[in-house]
Each structure stands twice: as C-alpha cells, then as structure tokens.
Amino acid sequence: MKRGKKLMILLAVLVVILGAAYGATLLNPETEEETVYTTIFTLDPETVTSLTWHYSEEVALTREDDAWVYADDPEFPLDSTYVDAMLTALSQIDSSKTIENVENWDQYTLEAPICEINLTASGEDTTIKVGEETALGGERYVSIGDENAYLVDSSFLEPFEYGLYDVLKVEEIPDMEEPLRLEVQSGGDQYTIEKQEDSGLAYTDDYVWFLGGKPLDTSLTQTLLDYVTDIEWSECVNYKATDLSKYGLDAPAATLTLTYTNEESESEQTFVLEIGSEASSGYYVRLAGSQMVYTIPASAAEAMLYTTYEDLKPTDVLLMDWTEVTSVEIQLDGESYTIYRTTQTETDEDGNETETVVYTLNGEEIDGAAITDLLDGLESTGYAGTAVPETGEEIRFVIHRNHASFPQVEIAFYRYNSSDCLTVLNGEPTVYVSRENIVDLVETVNGEVLD
Fold it and tell me: Distances from the Cα of 54 to the Cαs of 128, 144, 193, 417, in angstroms?
C-alpha cells in the first residue's frame, strides 16, 4: 500500500511539472522552435532560355530576342506576366526539410508528380518535380534532380497551375464610358439606338436615347448598353480560328457596332462585336476581323440578340417639368375646367425673395399641387401593346406650357378592365396604370374643382 501511495504521489508531481512546463510555453511563445529554411535552388531569370511545365498539359516556351514565345507557334499571344511569375518562383527555392537519398519517390508523390518543370539556364538543364500537398497542409515535396526530396511552401506551385490558354493574352476591350450610338444588325433586321440630348424629339428632355425618332426608356437602354460596354470574355476558345463556321461566326447571328467618345483623344471611335452560335456555356463571339474566338455569358449575348424596341419603350406614365406649365385643361364627365399655374414672388423685410406657385380656377386659388403630385406618382403596371381605347374615358388632361417643340401635352386614361386603365399620351397608347390610382385622381380633381 505504501509503495502504491508513493507511486501515486510521484505521478501527481509529474503531472504538475508537465502542466507548469506547458503553461510556461504558452506564456513564452518565443521559446517554441522556429522553422529553419534552407535555400536549395537559385537561378538568374535573365539566363533562362527555355521553360517547359506540365500541369494540366505541357506548355513549352523559348526566349527569342529577349521575348518569350510559345515554342510550337511564335504567333501565340502569350501573356508574359505569367512567365515573370514563374521565373520569380524559380529564382530561389527554400526548403524546411530534406529527405536524403530517397529510394521510394512514390512515398513523396514524386514518382508521378502533379507538375514537372524543365528549364535551361546558362546552358544547363534542370528538372524540378512537384508533388501533392502534405497531409498536414501548407507544404509539398519537390525534387530538383539530386537524390533528395525537399519540403517547400505549397504556394510554390501556384505560378505553374496553368495550361496554354490560361497564359494567353486576350484582346483588350476599350473604355466605352461615353456611348453615342449602337447599331444592331440581326439577320435581316437592323436598328440604331442614338443618343440625342435636348433633341426636341420628345415632350420631355429626360429622354436622351431614341430609336427611329422614338424615345426609349433611359434605364432600360442603359442596361442594354452596359452589356456591350462592360463586356468581359468568359474564355478564349481559339486564338487563331481559320474556320469560323465552327462558331457560327461565318454568318454572325448579330453584329453590334457601338460608337463612343474616346476620353483621351475626344474623338469618336467604334467597337464592333460579332455574336455567333450558342456554346456549351454562353455564346461564341469575336471582335470584327479578329481570329480570336471567345465565349461570353448567355445572359449578355441574348440581351444583345433579342432586345427590340418593344423592350425599350418608356415605362413612365408622365414625365412633366411643371415649371414650364402655364395651364392645365381637365376634361371630366363631359365638362371642361382650366386651372392656371402662376408664380408669385414675395419679399420679406430683410429683402429675401420667396417664390410661391399658385394654382387658380375661375380666379380662385385651389390646391393644384395635389393633382400634379398624383400625376407624377402614377406608375406603369405594364405595356399597352396594341390595345386601342374605344369607350370609357375616365379623365383627360391637356397641359399647356412654354416649350418650343411640344407646347401642348395631352394625356387621357381609359377604363380597360376592373383593375387597370389604359394610358393614351399624345394620341398613342403607352402603358396600363392601376384603376384604383385613377379613381383617386378623379376624386381629388372632383374635390378641388367641383367643391
């Protein structure tokens, strides 16, 4: 019993000592052993004359006249920044551990490496093999051609995780922040969207984009233009296509020509994009005259292919600058009423001027703003399409104003069904609006005009 008690006491003391040692380690982390790295390979990037790596596929490059080229085709558009990153990684390789005289390379995943790098520098050939990441992560084994295996940081592989088309330099898309005109040719159809500010083509200067002289919704048109100006290649599928029929680009489904202002030269330039057939992920496209074929997302291509005037028609019910308005004629229940809009300027004792808008009917002031606010707040519930008003006019407004091109704007609302009314603007059916809102508008007019 005594011997057992002594053993228990000794074990308890040992536990205390180990606990104290662990606590001291936590309190003094600098006492932990730091990893020591040893440089196992160096080279001067300027001395490298050939570089081949095999990751997803084998890619062989050579240096010609201080420029790197693809060995199989010097015309390949190589992005040399990838080569610079590879040579930087090879300029110095540091190892945290050395396994000498390796007999079983498969043990370190170097019998069949995930990447093999071959290079010639200063006339000497070197082969570097890179294995899988270790179980603990953060490091992987490499060999540099001697009998040893080395542990290096896993990030060493990153500059080499590419195939041929990954290191291809794609054609740049210009900065087209100021588009002026978009011409779309699709099959036998053609239309042109043009920016025309202060054109006098519409009753409001808020419309700046037009198709055949007809105003377009600014937001919807800008969305279409953004598909062109912000286009990005998903991938390049052929850098030197000779048979465009494979991509539907021998007879493009659509050709888009965007005219824009170059901010630096302040001159007009054009960007021409051709859209071909549908790919497994998106659509094939190319810049006009180029041999490089790309894919872009289907959403972008289909917006360019299938957008029509009907998709871009204004969704606004009424856009009115009331400061230009002089009077509003209201036709309701067979009667006509004219509200006049004027401004009055008052000056206080300090000389400060205040401008007040006044609406009058038959010489008496009314709350005309209640009517104009409701008109401004009307929202579309959908395009009218080919709907034609026949009967059931709820209310009509004839707006007179100081405007050179459109001194008069006429808007009427017709009962369409139990939930909607049809809007007719300057004689053209445009959009539907909620009948409930039109009922509110009629009641407000009745309250201000008839009471």
Answer: 11, 15, 49, 69
Which one, of 194, 184, 108, 113, lies nearest residue 149 by Cα?
A: 108
Burial of 4 (0-12, 13-18, 19+ CB in 10 A): exposed
Domain CATH for 402: 3.30.1490
Give the number of other Cβ atoms within 10 Å of residue 281's Cβ.
11
How many contiguous H segments (helices) and E segments (strands) does the chain have?
Answer: 7, 28
**What's the pLDDT at 69?**
97
Same domain, 429 and 335: yes
Q: For residues 202 and 239, state if they share a domain.
A: yes
Do 326 and 433 fall within a single domain?
Answer: yes
Distance CA 318, CA 296 (A): 37
pLDDT digits (tens, 9 = 90+) for 322-350: 999 999 999 999 999 999 999 988 887 78
Residue 201: closest CA among 192, 210, 191: 210
How many independent structural domains does the chain possess?
A: 3
Q: How far apart are CA 176 and CA 226, in angstroms?
A: 9
Question: Is 8 a member of any domain?
Answer: no
The mean pLDDT value of the chain amounts to: 90
Which amino acid makes up residue 259? Answer: T
Question: Is the confidence at residue 83, as pLDDT, over 60?
Answer: yes
**Within 13 A of 360's CA, how many CA atoms are on the CB side?**
9
> What sign for the dihedral angle of Cα 18, 22, 27, 28?
positive
Residue 126 phi/psi, 5-degree rounding, is -135, 140
pLDDT digits (tens, 9 = 90+) for 241-256: 999 999 999 999 999 9
Average pLDDT for 280-306:
96
Look at the pTM and tell me if it is higher than 0.85.
no
Residue 285 lies in a domain: yes
Instruction: Give the domain extent around 116.
Output: 38-167
Same domain, 127 and 67: yes
- Cα 418–424–428 angle (5° rounding)? 135
Identify the pLDDT of residue 59.
98
First and final C-alpha spacing in the chain:
112
Task: Quote the CA–CA distance of 364 and 379 in Å, as a whole number.
Answer: 31
Instruction: Report d(CA 326, CA 339) in Å as an integer.
Output: 9
Alpha-carbon span 284 to 297, nearest angstrom: 9
Which residue, among 93, 240, 85, 236, has the nearest Cα to 161 in the 3D structure?
A: 85
